[in-house]
Amino acid sequence: MRSRITEGGPVIDPAPGKRPAVRSVRIRPASSEVARDINRRIILNLIRLRHPISRADLARVSGLQRSTVSLIVEQLIEEQWVVEGPTGRLPRGRRPTFLRLNDERVIIAVDLRPTQITLAVSDANGKFSAQETMLTPADPGAAMAELIERIRRVVKSCRGRKIEGIGISVPGRIDERTNCLVFSPNLKWAGLDMRTPIANATGLTVELENAANACVLAAVWFDHVECRNLVVITVSEGIGAGVFLNGQLVRGQHGMAGEFGHVSLDPEGPLCNCGLRGCWEMFASNRAALRYYFESAAQAGDLSFADLLRRAGQGDSRARAALNRMARYLGRGLRTIVAGLAPERIIVIGDLTQSWEHFGPVIESEMRTSTLPGRCAPQVIPSRNDGMDRLRGTVALILQNDFGANREIPA
Is 32 a residue whose pLDDT tops 90? Predict the structure, then answer.
């Protein structure tokens, strides 16, 4: 076998009568436009993460030449992504001018849940300036009509500010090829195209993402979680999982990666909205805890999960027992995730984290009982519990069009 060099790179020729061991590959070098785009994103992210920062510090941190940094900064100022702030003081030499992201460049964030929809306005730093909620209509057509009307009102309220786009978090999975929900058992809107009507009505970029995936984006973009193998578990009406492996958000075929909430723990268990029996979320969701509580009561009643947490905090033994049972099942379900994905960290998001000091140890203990020999169990931590993870994730969803590279999360 002989190798030869061609214009496009090395090509391996087979020996006579032999099939080639390696297919011929032509390697094309990156164009100057690609290099400029990469450098632009590096500078933009450094300003986002380290603002206020001077041009000199940008050059020092990025390793780029000062002339290159100055050209990129001037372009970003012209595009209104970056503005100049106050000047600094030095013992000698030219006083530096500090740079920051433009607060007048905003994103409309939407968190869609089976019971309510939240709309908010955020700047590029994930700081929210306005927020409102509406009940989620059962009929998807009526829900879309009201949501579009609400978004239009939010757009009008943003006059004078540049709206970069609309990010939407949904309790289901979206097929990016069709823009349609392909799996939303708790919302029951499967087959609905949400992106097209909202984009047509507003003329803005619209991006949709699964709620758990949005929480992954929030953790990496705004909480600055430095972890290349991470799983986010959202616990509410159901259970969602966002998977971040080797520094990449995993979506899988048709966007279906991460549906651990619908892995059956007991084929004879309760019927799930997905049509299967004994799914993980039927044992470890907020709904499951309420079911446990009423199973132990003399009669059924009307109670929210927040009420259940409050009763547990007030010493209600039945409420505490129901939440402990929910926590144990959360830990059991996490065993599958640990065995299959080997994450370094698991972040739990949901109302249960308000009482993490009581139920976090139960979750971790249950998870660790079946950790494979020779493998370290991952760190399990609660979110910061301000309830804004999904909304912040939708902001990152829009920002990555300019700040990320090919929809990837920046390192």
Answer: no
- Could you say which of 1.10.3720.10, 3.30.420.40, 1.10.8.420, 3.10.20.740 is the CATH number of the domain covering 224-383? 3.30.420.40
Task: Evaluate the omega torsion of the peptide bond into residue 52 and state whether it is cis, within 30 degrees of 0.
Answer: yes
Contact 165, 207 (CB under 8 A): yes
Q: What pLDDT score does 189 carry?
A: 85
Q: What is the pLDDT of residues 91-133, one digit of tens each?
A: 555 678 899 988 889 999 999 999 999 999 999 888 999 999 9
CA distance 32 to 67: 16
pTM of the entire predicted model: 0.81
Look at residue 238 and give its three-state secondary structure. coil
Q: What whole-number distance in Å separates Cα of residue 188 and Cα of residue 194? A: 14
Residue 108 in contact with residue 163, Cβ under 8 Å? yes
Whether residue 147 contacts residue 125, with contact meaning beta carbons closer than 8 Å, is answered with no
61 close to 13: Cβ distance less than 8 angstroms: no
What residue type is 79 in one-letter code? E
Strand-pairing partners, residue 53, are 99
CA–chain centroid gap for 28, Å, is 33
Selection from 361, 398, 405, 396 nearest residue 381 by Cα: 361
Residue from 332, 344, 370, 368 nearest 232 by CA: 344
Mean pLDDT across the chain, nearest whole number? 85
Query: Quick one: 246 exposed, middle or buried, by C-beta within 10 A (0-12, 13-18, 19+)?
Result: exposed
**Paired sense of beta strands 128-135 and 162-170, if any:** unpaired
Superfamily for the 107-217+390-403 domain: ATPase, nucleotide binding domain (3.30.420.40)
Q: Domain 32-91 carries which CATH code?
A: 1.10.10
Please write the tens of the pLDDT for every residue from 126-139: 899 999 999 999 89
Over residues 335-358, the mean pLDDT reads 92
In this predicted structure, the answer to whether residue 144 has a pLDDT above a threshold of 90 is yes
